Amino acid sequence: MAKNKDLQPYWRPNVRISGTLPDIKVVRTDFIVNFIAFALVVITGVFLLQREYRTFVLNRAIASIQAQIAGSEADNDANIELDTRFRDAAEYVIDLQNFYRAPFRPYEVIAEVTRAKPQDILITSLSFRENVEQKSKEMSYSIVVGCEVPELTILNAFKSTLAESEMLNPENYVTTVVESFRAKSEQSGIFPCTINVSIKPPEKASKKKAKGAKDDD
Amino acid sequence: MEGLVDFKGAAYFVSRCGVYPDNRFVRYYETESVNKARDAQFLSTILESEFQVDPALNFVSILDARDGSDLDFETAMTRRIAFCGAANEDLKNTQDSLLEYGLYPDRMELSSVSTLGGLCDYARFNSIDAPVLFFELTSQAATIFIQSKGQLDVARPIPVGLDSIYPILQRELGLKDESSARKLFFSNTFDFAEMGPKLMRKVIKELQASTGFYEVQTGQTIEYLFISILPKNLSWVAKTISEALGLEIMQPSYEPWMKSLNVKVSEGVELMNLGSRWMGLFSLMGEYHLREEVANG
User: Fold this and answer.
1) Residue range A202-215, pLDDT digits in tens
2) In this structure, are strands B151-158 and B142-148 parallel, antiparallel, or unpaired?
3) In degrees rounded to 5, what are phi and psi of residue A73?
4) How many Cβ atoms sit within 10 Å of the Cβ of residue B132?
5) Rounded-to-integer distance, Cα A146 and Cα A148, Å
6) CB-based contact (8 Å) between B61 and chain A?
7) Beta bridge pairs of residue B132
8) Do A9 and B121 touch (CB under 8 A)?
9) What is the pTM of this model?
10) Fewest Cβ atoms nearer than 10 Å: which of A73, B74, B129, B152?
11) ipTM
């Protein structure tokens, strides 16, 4: 029913030739369509041109930067090599500085230990070690004396002598002497024992001391 | 034209126009089956072979001859169709003429077809069961239509027109040339009633052949004659033909019919006095399909 209403009236075909009729609209709207189409074309054109220009500028910048990178590569390699050599050299310098700043020489330690040794004590081993603190880069020293004593009182005397030694208590360092001993040998009747002398910068020592005081509490 | 209507300052007066282009055609055709009527290629071939109408050069409209609706190639359920149209060139020239007169065709319709539709609907509305002979006589051509109960049964051109009458008139009255005969023919000064059968002999012969064949073929008797386009001073033509064929001249009563189509006229218009010539104009206003939908609905 509704469909029929869209059809031509019965017996009345329209033979009008629409294509050749003039435009009689009171307000002509054809130009609006043309205007909109033209505006769309212009906007699209401007957008595409802008994008192309940006692409062109970016490509040019990329090429320029790549050329700079290529030009600087040789200089950069040379700088890296120089830096590596400098770092290696600096390590040696630090080692040398540490060596010359040490409060005593290894041979002086041997002489001092030998001097402090009571007569009835037998030194079986002597080691001297230098350590570089990781954080502060300061030096600390460790002396380990292996010995045998017939009486523990001799060991205490040796320990006290070492603890009071002027050379082993350098300025700006804190010295700690700790002795240890094992069971008396039945065969020989002597005590195998060890004395550790630790010489460290004061900060570390004070911290350790503080920690020891806390443990005592 | 500006003397007749108010253009209101516009360049054109938008109008619904009925036209009679020279090469217009209306042809009736009955296919063997419904499927054939749905075959556009077949119908195109028929148009060329049977009616010598080239679809490429002519505007062609195909209608269902039963009610005048546009033929739908997918859903059509009819075998009876009517081809109508005109040469593209003629339509273009006619349309250009309208524009020159200041008329802008909102619709441009073939008056032959719209008048035929008006007559069919009029017959259906008034329950005129007997077939009606509709004769369209113009200068160069004439077409015979027969409608029965609102359906087209015959649409056939005959190769005579008013122009073919002038030589006979010239000879009968001893006039000096055909233009004098033509002038006399359209004047109101001469009574052609007596001479009518002689002048119309060729036309009547064609009409008798067509109506006789139709009556034999269908078993129906044509009772009415309807002539649309001729002016009042040529009323003798209808009288001559009706007497020759023994038909009653149809005098349409427009008022109830137009009322049924919801067409209203100004108070000053006396529809009672308007003859068959006005059927063409009123037909341009008929929306028959809407009334049928209401009736069917």
Assistant:
1) 865 455 544 444 44
2) antiparallel
3) -65, -45
4) 24
5) 7
6) yes
7) B147, B224
8) no
9) 0.62
10) B74
11) 0.90
